[in-house]
Amino acid sequence: MDSGIVRGIAFNCHQLQPRAQECTDKMTGAIAGVSDYWVDLGGEEFKQHCMDWIGKMNKFKAAIALIESEMLKYADKLQGEEQAAATAAAAAASKMKGKTK
After folding, report:
1. Angle formed at CA 79 by CA 66 and CA 3, multiple of 5 degrees
2. Out of 12, 24, 55, 91, which residue is the most buried by the measure of CB atoms under 10 Å away?
3. Contact 20, 74 (CB under 8 A)
4. Using DSSP, how many helices (H) and how many strands (E) does the chain show?
C-alpha cells in the first residue's frame, strides 16, 4: 500500500463527517420542536432516543476524525519511506551506470 492509497482512504473518512453532522443537526431540530403536548404522548421517549442517537453520532464523528488523522500520519510516514527508497534506487542506479562504462 502506498501513501496515495492511504490518503485516499483518509479522504473517504473525511467525507463521512458532513453527513454525520447533518444527521446530528436533523435530530437536534426534531427534538427542538417537541411540544409539551407531544411529551405527554410519548414525545419524551422520542426525545430521549434522539439524544442517545446524537450522542452516538458525536462519538462516531470523533472516531472518524481520529482515524483520518492517524491515516494521514501514516501516509506521511509512507511518503517519507517512498522518497528514501527512490533516492536510494537513484543512487544505486547511478553507481551501476558508472561501473558499466
Report:
1. 60
2. 24
3. no
4. 3, 0
